[in-house]
Design goal:
alpha+beta, 4 helices, 5 strands, binds zinc ion
């Protein structure tokens, strides 16, 4: 059975949304901040079962792709594209799956799940593969490498931009 109306109302409430609480933090329970743009926070997941797994999380608490205006939509997907290019540069996957879900945590985001040479291409996608948890220092190094690659990738578009988080 699907969520009750009350449960769904609670899940979609910006005031109690877990992503609104921690998507901007340098480090949180699930991921490390790579880049922030006017539209999004780009984060690398702690679970690196798929090496290079990142998320692009909309800054604003919007719960459905259908609710974005054309400008937000374009900016969001431009960030997703740039993140994919950065992942490709750093981790050289065979393919990146782009997943927009949100039936459990309905804050709009895209999961970028790289598929590598050792992965079975006929397996169903499962973002909970693993977990493979790397040392914090490795994730920080990954974030640095992705930030550098982001700058290259964003330069391929006229728009794009984004900057490293201020420290
Ligand atoms: Zn939210």
């Amino acid at each position: 059975m699907w969520w009750t109306a009350d449960e769904w109302a609670a899940l979609t409430d910006a005031g109690t949304c877990g992503m609104c609480t921690d998507a901007h933090l340098d480090v949180n329970e699930h991921s490390v901040l790579v880049v922030e743009t006017a539209t999004s926070f780009v984060r690398i997941a702690r679970n690196q079962a798929h090496r290079g797994y990142c998320l692009v999380i909309l800054r604003e608490h919007v719960t459905d792709l259908a609710d974005l205006d054309p400008e937000q939509l374009g900016s969001f997907w431009a960030d997703v594209q740039t993140a994919g290019r950065a992942i490709a540069e750093v981790f050289e996957p065979r393919r990146i799956d782009y997943l927009v879900m949100g039936h459990r945590m309905p804050h709009l985001r895209c999961h970028l799940l790289p598929q590598h040479a050792a992965d079975d291409p006929l397996r169903n996608v499962d973002i909970s593969d693993g977990p493979v948890l790397l040392p914090a220092s490795v994730l920080q190094d990954d974030a640095v490498a992705l930030r550098r690659a982001w700058a290259h990738a964003a330069g391929r578009n006229r728009r794009g931009g984004g900057s490293a988080p201020q420290r």
